[in-house]
Design a protein that fits this description.
Blueprint: E1 2-5, E2 8-11, E3 19-24, E4 27-31, H1 37-49, E5 56-59, H2 65-68, E6 78-81, H3 82-89, E7 122-124, E8 127-132, E9 135-141, E10 150-154, E11 159-163, H4 179-192, E12 197-200, E13 204-206, H5 208-230, H6 242-246, H7 256-276
Parallel strand pairs: 4-5, 5-6, 6-7, 11-12
Antiparallel strand pairs: 1-2, 2-3, 3-4, 8-9, 9-10, 10-11, 12-13
């Protein structure tokens, strides 16, 4: 666990996503949940040892299973964007694990199937601000990775938890993405958050250069999709884009097959949804 400012922490030791915690006298805001229930209990205990009170609230940065499957074990109210809540309303109450080839972290855990989802208790549309003593915490809607993606921003500390908007040394999840909106979110980071500490949702702190790398990768993906669409290519032909895209990402050798599958699944789903499917309500993660 790393402390960036007094009462502000992030943790990269758990599988799946980077966790955050804002521990203030008025209460604790937790950002995303560990994937496994036993890890959630350890995380809660860790926060209690740091002075976390019983007044706790969990913020889900989006609806991805890696960051939401463990939410129920956090045993507190949950806050998310209203579009994230809509995804949960469209899901069965129990996680069945039917999408098993998306390159997500949960797929390596045999005990995830049968987990009951914890739906958000509080939602918002555009932005929401907490005023706790001298601390102001802003939640803002920044779609791209998913329709309900949000950031948690602490202006006085110049820290922003940006979720899957920026991924370091791994390919993006594309199945529920809007690449145009995602690129607009990255433009905003480059224009107005250059002096912030940016905490990515899966790798901890990310530099402005990593933001630029993410921007170039998404532009390459979008160009590849447009080329395929112009010649009315089938969704299966998106696989031809993978080798070139991976060449621009430095990844650990042990993760290569997982990340190839992540791109294979995501490119197929994105292309099918954006260029072939008439069912824009479909959510694939």
């Amino acid at each position: 666990m790393q402390q960036t400012e007094r009462g502000i922490y992030y943790e990269t030791a758990y599988a799946g996503v980077t966790l955050g915690a804002l521990i203030f006298p008025q209460g604790t805001l937790m950002i995303d949940a560990p994937l496994r229930a036993e890890d959630a209990r350890i995380w809660r205990s860790t926060l209690l040892s740091l002075g976390s009170s019983g007044n706790r609230l969990l913020i889900n940065l989006d609806s991805h299973p890696d960051r939401t499957l463990g939410a129920r074990a956090m045993d507190c109210p949950i806050l998310a964007h209203q579009k994230t809540a809509q995804v949960f309303r469209n899901r069965p109450s129990v996680f069945k694990g039917q999408i098993s080839d998306s390159g997500a972290e949960w797929e390596a855990s045999n005990d995830m199937v049968g987990t009951r989802w914890a739906t958000p208790d509080i939602t918002f549309s555009h932005h929401l601000t907490f005023h706790w003593g001298k601390s102001q915490i802003k939640l803002e809607h920044h779609p791209g990775p998913t329709p309900g993606s949000i950031w948690v921003i602490i202006p006085t500390a110049k820290i922003a938890f940006v979720g899957d908007t920026v991924l370091h040394d791994q390919p993006p999840f594309l199945a529920s993405a809007d690449l145009t909106a995602w690129l607009a979110s990255l433009d905003l980071l480059l224009a107005h958050y250059r002096d912030y500490l940016l905490i990515g949702g899966r790798s901890g702190p990310v530099s402005i250069e990593v933001v630029r790398t993410q921007q170039r990768l998404l532009k390459d993906i979008l160009k590849g999709m447009e080329r395929l669409a112009k010649r009315s290519a089938s969704s299966n032909q998106t696989e031809a884009l993978i080798e070139g895209l991976l060449a621009s990402v430095t990844i650990p050798s042990e993760k290569r097959e997982q990340y190839i599958q992540r791109l294979r699944h995501g490119l197929y789903q994105y292309y099918n949804r954006r260029y072939h499917s008439t069912d824009s309500a479909a959510e694939q993660e």
